[in-house]
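As a warm-up, study this chain.
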Amino acid sequence: MLAVSYAKINLFLEVIDRLESGYHQVNTVLCGIDLFDCIKFSLTKSGSPIVWSSNAKLNGQNNLMYKIADYLRTKYGLEESVEIYLEKRIPIAAGLGGGSSNAAIAILALDKLWRLDLASEEKHEIAARFGSDINFFLEGGTALGENRGERISRMDDILIDNILLVNPGIEIPASIAYGAVELPAPGEAKLYDPKRPIATMYNRLESGIRKLYPKVYRILCTLDEFGSQKSMLSGSGSTCFGIFENENDLAICQKHFHKLGFYTHKTKTLSRREYQKCFPS
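Now compare it with the structure written out below.
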């Protein structure tokens, strides 16, 4: 079975408080975008799951797809196993949810391949065991994430074209990003207005990361200088994105970053229908 695994950006990320579990309570708006990894799932007769990738750092048992495959195989007493190959295109530890997206697609694909016939609630319970963003990628489109991000509520599609992603090649652990955040005072948490999607975009983590990683700060400033309507960090970073009024302005900015050696990608947000059209079936 072949599948694509889409990335996401956060249009909004407010960090409200710290939970007793050690995670942070967030209010976030996530959108699927058209950047994707490719994944091949092949059934095997027996043995432990095998995960390997075009990026050797993602091979083996630390990959979330391995952990999910091993969990499902044990939980349901399956004799069949699986070999998974990941063609990695989404930057790693970059605020684009690549690992969480891969994990969600693994849940959906293995449900089909192993004929588990899992209910939607069961898939979401499994997703929540392994991460905070995985639940979003079971749905796609645009959604509100609450608690630690795993409580997902559908929103109307927010469709934005001419988005430029810029990644400086820095991997920012979520623990560092959240460790540097300054929580809002009670009653002062920011709110997102879907009727003004660009005007109310915000990322609470950005301020702390700008201070820790000057290269991120310079990217955001440069996006502004090239005419981005809104320049922002996605998730816990390090990918930044700018929203441009037209393709020509975006192309000029992209060429500038390309000369500096940064990873760039022109993208757009996806409707839920576009996102789910490529689900494993």
